[in-house]
Amino acid sequence: MYYVKKTLEISSCHQLYLDYESKCENLHGHNWMVNIYCKAKELDSNGMVCDFTHIKQLVHKRLDHKNLNEELKFNPTAENIARWIVDTVPNCYRAEVWESRDNMAAYEKDED
Questions:
Q1: pLDDT in the model for residue 89
Q2: Angle of helix 78-88 relative to helix 52-63, nearest 10 degrees?
Q3: Which domain holds residue 64?
Q4: What span, in angstroms and rounded, lies between the C-alpha atoms of 101 and 30?
C-alpha cells in the first residue's frame, strides 16, 4: 500500500448553526490546518497515489479566503469539513481539520 499526506493552511470564515447558544453562531474566522491522507494499492500511470497539486486545487482553491457557509451546502463544522474532504479528494481515506492548535476533528472512511 502506498500512502501520501498533504498539509494545507486555509484561511476562511464560517458561522455554525447550533441548537444551543454559542459564540460560534457569529461569523468568525480560522487559519485552519488540514491534513489530507490518501492511499492506493497501485500507483497511477504517473507513479503517484494522487498529485499533490490536484489535492490543493480541490480543497485549498475551493475554501481559502472564502465564507464556508456560502461555499459548502452543510453546517461547516470541522467534522463536516473533514468528511467533505474525504468524499471530494480521490483516494482520500482520512482528513484532519484543525481549527486551532488545540481543536481538531477527523473523519476516516470505514474499510469495508
A1: 98
A2: 140
A3: 2-108
A4: 11
Neighbours of 20 (CB within 10 A): 5
CATH number at residue 37: 3.30.479.10
Listed as own residue / partner, the contacts of 24-29 with beta carbons closer than 8 Å and 24 or more positions apart are 27/67
What does the pLDDT look like over 61-107, one tens digit per residue?
Answer: 999 999 999 999 999 999 999 999 999 999 999 999 999 999 999 99
Sheet of strand 2-14: strand arrangement: 2-14, 28-40, 92-100, 103-108
Total count of domains within the chain: 1
Let me know: does 70 contact 82? Beta carbons within 8 Å.
no
pTM: predicted TM-score of the whole model, two decimal places: 0.94
Spatial distance between the Cα atoms of 112 and 70, rounded to a whole number of angstroms: 33
The secondary structure of residue 50, as a DSSP letter, is S
